[in-house]
Specification:
Blueprint lengths: L4 E6 L3 E5 L7 E4 L6 H14 L4 E5 L15 H9 L12 E5 L6 E2 L4 H13 L3 H17 L6 H22 L4 H22 L21 E5 L7 H18 L11 E6 L2 H4 L4 H14 L4 E7 L7 H4 L4 E4 L7 H12 L9 H7 L4 E5 L11 E5 L11 H9 L16 H31 L4 H30 L5 E2 L5 E2 L2
Parallel strand pairs: 3-9, 3-10, 4-7, 4-8, 5-6, 5-7, 8-9
Antiparallel strand pairs: 1-2, 1-12, 10-11, 11-12, 13-14
Helix pairs in contact: 3-4, 3-7, 4-5, 4-6, 5-6, 5-14, 7-9, 11-12, 14-15
The protein binds adenosine-5'-triphosphate and magnesium ion.
Amino acid sequence: MADNTIFLGKSDKPEVLYLPLANRHGLVTGATGTGKTVTLQILAEGLSAAGVPVFAADIKGDLSGIAVKNAPPDFLVERAKQVGLEPYEQMAFPTVFWDLFGEQGHAIRTTVTEMGPLMLSRLMGLSDAQEGALNIAFKIADEEGLAILDLKDLRALLKDLADRGKEITTQYGNVAAPTIGAIQRQLVVLEEQGGDKFFGEPALDIKDFMRTARDGRGYVNIIAADRLINSPQLYATFLLWLMSELFEQLPEVGDADKPKLVFFFDEAHLLFSETPPGLLQKIEQTVKLIRSKGVGIYFVTQNPLDIPESVLAQLGNRVQHALRAYTPRDQKAVRTAATTFRANPKFDTEKAITELGKGEALISVLDLKGVPTMVERTFIRPPSGQLGPITPEQRKAIIADSPVAGKYDSPVDRDSAYEILAKRAHAAAAAEKEAAEDKARAKEEKAAARAPRERESATDRFIKNAASSVGRQLGSTVARSIGNALVRGILGGLTRR
Ligand SMILES: Nc1ncnc2c1ncn2[C@@H]1O[C@H](COP(=O)(O)OP(=O)(O)OP(=O)(O)O)[C@@H](O)[C@H]1O
Ligand SMILES: [Mg+2]
């Protein structure tokens, strides 16, 4: 086989994915238990072997087997023979485990500032009015140089906004106190879902997802999602944020011989359900444009109807496992799935979809000219890594040995909005007190008939000095924390180029 392909399985001929077209996105669908995760695993293995780093969420923990090798069960050996994979080699793939909760892998964090108001509103399920208020909060923070690193910062900022009431309203528009109260309540929900662990520092450096091992294979980045999936908003927004980070930070590469990174979006329906149209449009746009940065996105979901038409149309490489056709909605899904394939005169696509066995799929990929290949009924190859989850001990050993060991494991809490606002309040109170004392002294002196005017201007000077020293302090913190002007990208995340 040519070395610009990944072997996927066998129909009446070998079926492959073409690496130069692997950034033209993909779709893996099928009912539960039909072989989606195994297909995801063999795709990830093939990409890793070709030197392409991979990112995937592991919903059930069963993808973790990719990190170890083990004697395969007989039915996999049998499958290897069936698809002409001889010799059938066993192999562990270089893997980094991640976990938003920092338990089953290295912690992944981002800052509130980096995520931006658009995604944060989606995350907290805010109404339009609430989103408007959040936008103002971000605007003020950006202007006043307040870094919003964690949820504590955001809370302090909202409180400050509420306290400043009138001043904010005249400058930025109306921000009603109940609106802020409602956002604050959503913040509590987010914290309970584990958002307090996700927001903070050290924030993820996206380059750590793009590593290759010494032997040239791409690292497989697996994020534990078994717990995360119970907070679907957090899960979906996290992956969305990651996609936007990749998009904003990676340079254009044009046509390349292989992708820079492939990103698997499991349970993809969560990305699109309850997503406001404005955000949806931006997701579509990002998916379309991220290709040229060498990033391939593969959606994994049960039902192709889960994916909006405009996104579906962009997914060039497709693996369709079996679908059931019990209900009218099922039947519609089968029909939709069938119509997305270029028909093969050898069989009826729609009928085949309902007949496929485990680990069998209809495959169509983009050929080297970028044209979809005729759909083929294919037995998927068995994985080279272990089928099924690793043990907690194995996981621990791999985490300890990872190239980012120690880098993200302890949170850091540096000065940000919370601390600065607290200091500011403190300084204001102190200045007020001093001013009052000065005034009292001036009064005494006035009583002694001594130059009152001069005394008063000394008081002014004092207040000015106090204010500017706070200002300087703020200034240096800002410089340290965010640098120059903030620029937000398509999905409202921070761009840093
Ligand atoms: N390529 C394959 N070769 C041999 N057997 C396979 C293959 N793919 C899947 N199977 C068999 O089917 C089982 C289920 O596959 P898998 O876990 O990938 O399904 P799934 O679609 O991810 O299910 P779920 O939706 O429940 O997560 C596997 O444990 C394995 O026994
Ligand atoms: Mg699965």
